[in-house]
Amino acid sequence: MEEKPKPTKKELQAILALLGHPGVSEADITAFTAEEDGMEYAVWHIRTGESEFVLKRAKGLEIEVYRSFFSEKKPYAPEFFGDCEYRGEKYFLSEYCDGETLSYCTREKLINALDALIAMQDEFWQREELFGCAVTLEKALKAIEDRGNWLGSPKLERVYADFVRIYQQPPRTLGHEDLLPFNLLIGEKRAVLIDWEYGGMLPYPGSLARLIAHGREDGSYMFFMSAADRAFAIDYYYNNLLKKHGISYEDYRGTLDYFLFYEYCEWIMLGNRYDARNDERYGYYMKLAEELAVKLTAK
Question: What mean pLDDT comes out for the span 257-266?
Answer without folding.
Answer: 99
